[in-house]
Amino acid sequence: MADFLTILNEKTYGKYDFLRVKSVEVNSSVGSVTVTFLVPPEKYSSLGLDEQKEIKEALTEQLPTFEIHINFEKHLMDHKMILSRSWDFISKRFPFVACGLKKGNIAFFEENNHSILHIKAPESISEYAKGVGFEGVLSDYLYNRFCIKCAISWEVCEVDENDLDQVYIEKVYDVRSNLIPISNRRYLAGRKSDLEKGLPTHICDVKKESESVLVCGVVKYFDIKDFGEQPAVVENPVEDSELSSTELAIKEVNAKKTRKRRRYCYKFTLDDSTSKIKVSYFCVEKNPDLDNIKDGDSLMVRGNSKYNELFDDYSINANLIARCEIDFEAVKEQMKKLPPPENYLEIKPGTYEYEELNQISFDNEEEGEKDENVVCALAFSYVKIFDDNGIDFKEQPYEMACIKQVGKTPREYIHSYLKVSDTSSISVDLKDSVFSAPRLENLIPDILKFIQESTVVVLRKDVIDTVFNLAESLRYEAPEADFKNLHSMGVKKGDEGKTFYERCADKKIVLSQDAGAMSHSRAMLKFYNLVAKKK
Predict the structure, then answer these.
(1) Do 334 and 202 contact (CB within 8 A), yes or no?
(2) What is the mean pLDDT of residues 427-440?
(3) Cα–Cα distance for residue pair 55/335, rounded to 1 Å
(4) Sequence-ordered list of residues with C-beta below 8 angstroms from that of 249, at least 6 positions apart, any chain
(5) pTM (global) more than 0.85
(6) To the nearest 10°, the Cα dihedral for 96, 97, 102, 103?
(7) What whole-number percentage of the chain has pLDDT above 90?
(8) DSSP 301-342
(9) Which end of the chain has fewer CB within 10 Å, C or N?
């Protein structure tokens, strides 16, 4: 739909540049398309039947076989939504900035008919952000997403020594980045205008096809492939005698072009110590600067990443090659596995004050023996995200809860809703909580800290996989915890084929499949206490 809006504004000279597409509903069985546009409140009253007709005609040119329906809806400014989307955009587009910010230090307000996004950050963060064009990119995003012209203002703050969270962030500021410091860039070939744009990313992070990937590394297996001259055209004097002088001249020019056309391919592998990637650079004429490259040289390459089925990996077709000096010590520090943070960053544990969990004595328990075993019940609630066909789906967690029990007493818990890509199947009373919630990957450091050195009970193996995979991608050490799946615990004759909920009912533990993550976590601890045997 973005292409349609572009065409619409070209035809109407920007008349509808304030429109944003909220939804597009296609009914293929009757051949109809319903498009709902979001309109700023001050523009809503200016849209009528004439505007509907004009937009409908433009859309019909793009979809001539469909019956088009147009709806307008007021786009009310939700400050909470703007802040949430802004934070998500900063985290994805400017991770180097996000890791030095606090989510609570970003505010959105309107003053004298002007929209302002106010950011409070240390001077090092604000100076870096300004240097990489942060303000312009973020302003463009807010205009394209919400149709608001928003100014970015900064408030420089000092790092409070008592603010342990911020001290931790500053400590890992460089370590968390996947941007490699380089210096002394020297152009060799390709688009020279791209030479000073950006910092290279880790090769291990090249995991999708993209039109502008910037990486660096040490050269290995350097080679030049010469395709040779194209075969000369065999001239037929009989046919030539029948051509006019103009046709003969054109044929001679084309023959000369064919004889001169040569193709060279420079091929090599780059290794930045995080991974390796194959690079190809095609050119018509040989390049003396590239001819001098040898194995062991350090290069920076920008180009298009493509998936190579032959090698089952990604490769790059380069459009810029430059020499550079690479700070491999920084890369080494960046790739170090981090332990869980010293302090909670996003969510802090609360004191458990719910009903007492049912407890029973363990076998072989000695009177007066002190039990300091730590058990955590980690539970996710899932939502189904359906594909366009409405049949296939994937599950995403939209709620997380974990209760920690020390000995036989539940002490504390962590709980949070989680942002998901589609909230259409989430109950209305939870939509706001999920919409403004953090992403699961942002909570992983806190989860790792909470479950460290404990027995962690779960209901699904993919809970374990999720925690380990996200910890790996965030470069945190795997949690020092003993994971146990409750489905395989305490199974007795007659339990085969029973669901966990049926086994809970057998033990007088009330748990519904529709219950939230906290209820699941509480029931899981009750179940564990009933079936666990002390060794």
Answers:
(1) yes
(2) 80
(3) 52
(4) none
(5) no
(6) -100
(7) 21
(8) EEEEEEEETTTTEEEEEEEEEEEEEE-HHHHHHHTSPBPPPS
(9) C
State phi, psi for 134 to the nearest 5 degrees. Answer: -55, -45
Burial class of 138 by CB neighbour count within 10 A (0 to 12, 13 to 18, 19+): buried
CB atoms within 10 A of CB 454: 21
Q: What gap in Å lies between CA 516 and CA 354, rounded to an integer?
A: 15
How is the beta sheet containing 106-111 ordered, strand by strand?
106-111, 114-121, 150-156
HEC sequence for 183-224: EEEEEEEECHHHCCCCCCECHHHCCCCEEEEEEEEEEEEEEE
100 touches 169 (CB < 8 A): yes
Between CA 387 and CA 392, with CA 388 as vertex, the angle to 5 degrees is 35
pLDDT of residue 261: 53
Q: How many CB atoms are closer than 10 A to CB 160?
A: 10
- Total residues belonging to the chain: 535
Helices (H), 388-475: 428-435, 440-451, 461-473
Q: What is d(CA 298, CA 342) in angstroms, rounded to the nearest whole number?
A: 37
pLDDT surpasses 70 at 513: yes
Instruction: Determine contact, residues 503/477, Cβ cutoff 8 Å.
Output: no
Q: What is the mean pLDDT of residues 240-256?
A: 62
Question: In angstroms, what is the C-alpha Rg of the chain?
Answer: 31
Task: Tell me the C-alpha distance between 411 and 404, whole Å.
Answer: 6
Tokens of residue 482, six digits: 């003993």
Distances (CA, A) of 110 to 115, 118, 121, 148, 232: 4, 11, 20, 11, 71
* Residue 528: closest CA among 472, 490, 483: 490
Beta strands in 231-297 (DSSP E): 264-271, 276-283
Cβ–Cβ under 8 Å, residues 428 and 367? no
Element spanning 247, H or E: helix 245-260
Three-class secondary structure of residue 93 per DSSP: helix
- Closest C-alpha among 317, 349, 331 to residue 415: 349
Query: What average pLDDT is seen over the chain?
Result: 79
For residue 505, what are its two tokens? 């009912």
**What token pair was written down for 270?**
């780059």
What is the band of 162 on the pLDDT scale with cuts at 50, 70, 90?
Answer: very low
How many Cα atoms are found within 13 Å in the side-chain-facing hemisphere of 152?
A: 20
CA 340 to centroid of chain Cα atoms: 21
- CB burial of 111-131 (b: ≥16 within 10 Å; e: otherwise) equals eeeebebebbbbeebbebbee
